[in-house]
Amino acid sequence: MSISIKTPEDIAGMRIAGRLGAEVLDYITPFVKAGVTTGEINRLAHEYMVNVQGTVPATLNYAPPGYPPFPGSLCTSVNDVICHGIPGDKVLKNGDSVNIDITVITKDGYHGDNSRMFLIGEPSVQARRLAEVTYECMWLGISKVRPGARLGDIGHAIQQHAEKNGFSVVREFCGHGIGKVFHEEPQVLHYGRPGTGEELQPGMIFTIEPMINAGRREIREMPDGWTIKTRDRSLSAQWEHMILVTETGYEVLTTSAGTPPPPAIVQPKDSVAA
Ligand code: MF3
Ligand code: CO
Ligand code: CO
User: For the whole model, what pTM was predicted?
Assistant: First the structure.
């Protein structure tokens, strides 16, 4: 098996999918406040995808081998939840930090996968710092993307920055190729050594979605078959973008009016698409 090179038609379809995925995050942003349940955010996003956009939530009933069907139209991962949190009757409260991860499928069958962190009210200094460093990690990884670079360059940049700040990188979950298939080759590890791994070529599309823990990197799986928490109950954060390898660098596909700008740590020249 190898990494698919997208056709111009695929790339056009993935630009649309990426924008629509990001626009669902924009739409729910004003509702992500203390007092709301994660289930209500799920309901609002579901209605928006299906009735306004005409997209389908990719996560709903998603059931890879060995997993029960996922019961949500998005993932809500609060505080020590690393990823795949199931929306439900949990009420968000002042000080919580939550990752919301949304994947749409467009009418043409393309996937738009992205996530952002939301801080509720006045979170701790540690929660803010973790979300910020994780955002920098994602962008430092993105800024490595260009033809001839290797997957290990991305992982190394992310791992170095996380560990330099006293945090740890989750090993069990990674970024992934994406297109008409939700999860395809390659696996984009968020740790590694420079100069190792597959060489990037124009037309590849994959996500970069580091999960960074404030404490130790080990995970715990919950009995619901999906929810993943930190073993030591420390906070965890994640951000996700979908990236196209261009002839000269990268293009972030999951962009919308509400996409946060790149962090100062990434040089402006590096952040210009293509
Ligand atoms: N959106 C997640 C990712 O970034 C996958 C969620 S699968 C689910 O790959 F079933 F948990 F929703
Ligand atoms: Co995602
Ligand atoms: Co993803």
Answer: 0.97
Distance CA 5, CA 226 (A): 31
Query: Is residue 47 classed as helix, strand or coil in its secondary structure?
Result: helix
Residue of the nearest CA to atom 12 in ligand 1? 59
- Structural domains of the chain, with CATH: 8-270 (3.90.230.10)
Ligand 1: residues whose CB is within 6 Å? 59, 62, 70, 75, 84, 101, 103, 113, 207, 209, 226, 240
pLDDT (tens place) for every residue of the chain, 274 residues total? 699 999 999 999 999 999 999 999 999 999 999 999 999 999 999 999 999 999 999 999 999 999 999 999 999 999 999 999 999 999 999 999 999 999 999 999 999 999 999 999 999 999 999 999 999 999 999 999 999 999 999 999 999 999 999 999 999 999 999 999 999 999 999 999 999 999 999 999 999 999 999 999 999 999 999 999 999 999 999 999 999 999 999 999 999 999 999 999 998 765 555 4
In 10 A of CB 70, how many CB atoms? 21
Residues 6+ apart with CB under 8 A from 219: 82, 170, 172, 228, 229, 230, 231
For residue 214, how far is its CA from the centre of ligand 3 (angstroms)?
A: 21
**Ligand 2 geometric centre to CA of 218 (Å):** 20
Distance 107 CA to ligand 2 centre (A): 19
